[in-house]
Amino acid sequence: MFSTHSWGATEQECAASYPCDEHLPKPYLSFHRAIDVDAPVPLTFRWLCQVRTGAYTYGRLHSSSRTLTPGAENLAIGQRFLAFDLVDFEPGSHLTGVTYPAARRAYGVIAVTYQVVPRATGASRLVVRLNAAAPTGLARIRASVLAVGDTVIMRKQLLTLKALAERDAAAPQ
């Protein structure tokens, strides 16, 4: 099902708890994106760490590396990922960020978790929950508008990360 609230995510994934839930007070609106990746969890997570070096979205693909950047997987609290500062992570599992002050002016207060989970032997699933603060009517409208744009942009990002991880997984060792 395709909607601005959920793209590719299962009901169970939408109902689950994520680390970003702890970094934003309620009320907030949650948006979910998910995709199957035919690559093992460590490789998919390694490509996810590449988001530190480029956006992997429309208009920014030309500046996003098609090879893994050495050291991009060396995570630390406070590192910048797109419009977020890293506030929590578990190597091989998830990255969680909160919008930094300048990004908050543009997008509002947002917490996001990118999580990589095993799907089958040698395969993984990339699941994203984005929580957007929405305490008032105006903030709820902004969050809904953000969701429309995010659906298109994050879809491209996830499809690109999937393709790169699958390409590397299929490459001769």
Describe the structure.
The structure is a single chain. The chain has helices at 11-15, 41-49, 101-107, 137-170, and strands spanning 6-7, 28-37, 80-81, 84-90, 94-99, 110-120, 123-133. It has four helices and seven strands. The N and C termini lie far apart (37 Å). Helix 2 (41-49) crosses helix 4. 32% of the residues lie in helices and 28% in strands. It has a single domain (25-170), classed as Alpha-D-Glucose-1,6-Bisphosphate, Chain A, domain 4 (2-Layer Sandwich). The longest helix is centred in the last third of the chain and has 34 residues, at 137-170. With 173 residues, it is of the alpha+beta class.
In short:
The protein is of the alpha+beta class. The chain has helices at residues 11-15, 41-49, 101-107, 137-170; strands spanning 6-7, 28-37, 80-81, 84-90, 94-99, 110-120, 123-133.
Topology:
Layout: E1 6-7, H1 11-15, E2 28-37, H2 41-49, E3 80-81, E4 84-90, E5 94-99, H3 101-107, E6 110-120, E7 123-133, H4 137-170
Parallel strand pairs: 1-2
Antiparallel strand pairs: 2-7, 3-4, 4-5, 5-6, 6-7
Helix pairs in contact: 2-4
CA distance, first residue to last residue: 37 Å
Q: Can you tell me the overall shape?
A: globular
User: SSE order in H/E notation?
Assistant: EHEHEEEHEEH
Helix- and strand-based class?
A: alpha+beta
Count of individual beta strands: 7
Portion in helices:
25-40%
Strand fraction equals 25-35%
Q: What value does the average pLDDT take?
A: 86
